[in-house]
Amino acid sequence: MPFTQIEAISLFGDPETGHATADTNEPLYSLSHSTTRLAIDIVILPPEQVMDLAIEWNKHLAKKHLQSILLGKTISLPHISLLMGCLAKNQMASAHAALTDIANGTKSLDLRITRNRDVGEVTSPVVTLDIESTPALLSLHENIVDTFKSLLTQDAKASEIDDTPPITHSSLKWISNFMADQCHENFWPHITVGHGNSEKVQTEYNFTATRLAIFHLGNHCTCKTLLFETTLKD
Asked: What SS3 state is found at 58?
């Protein structure tokens, strides 16, 4: 049976503390990476309690399954991906301005985790927290895709990932194919919480999202390094 909000947050023990902090609408990262482009993810960052829930799930799964993704609040943050691609460094200011304009014209989002489920290969499934695709969320996704499609390319290279080699082929494929395979009618809002099986635990949770961000992607499409963050209007 579904858990209540309080039960869902305390399923697996105490969450870790601390979180990424930033001055809203300010660049957060000096672009010292040697490549001229960065593989990025434009995301919704969920509120504190939802981050805690995702991190608890990740820790729970790590007790039984080897994890390539270790979630935290300062690196590899839980997130809902809206669009991935490769952005030239000299287009970063334009990307910041574009995301700020979108945020200024978008109200905070009332969202719902509808379930957790196991996806992918049976031998190595991934557990996700699936988010209801509301009209407001879909509209934000479409707006970001329409705005950023001229700024992004879909041909990710290992050197553009913020991680040490080897970079998995599946990471590069997911980034490069995101526009074609994960957008518009194929948009699948979710939070990935790790490898394993969710067993009989079920999670439902209502929350309000107010944070939009751009991340430099790490291996396994983690939100590795925060580049820019802005806030949806109240």
From this structure: helix
Q: What is the dihedral of CA 96, 111, 79, 13, to 10 degrees?
A: 140
Tokens 């990932």 sit at which residue? 161
| CB-CB contact of 209 with 108 (8 Å) | yes
3-state DSSP call for residue 138?
helix
This prediction's pTM: 0.86
Provide, rounded to the nearest whole percent, the portion of the chain with pLDDT above 70.
Answer: 84
The SS3 assignment for 159 reads: helix
What residues form DSSP beta bridges with 116? 129
Q: Are 108 and 231 in contact, with CB atoms under 8 Å apart?
A: no
Cβ neighbours of 123 (radius 10 Å): 5
- The Cα 188–Cα 120 span in angstroms is 14
Position 66, amino acid = L
Tens digit of each residue's pLDDT (9 = 90 or more) over 12-43: 443 333 334 343 444 444 444 568 999 999 99
Q: What are phi and psi of 59, to 5 degrees?
A: -65, -40
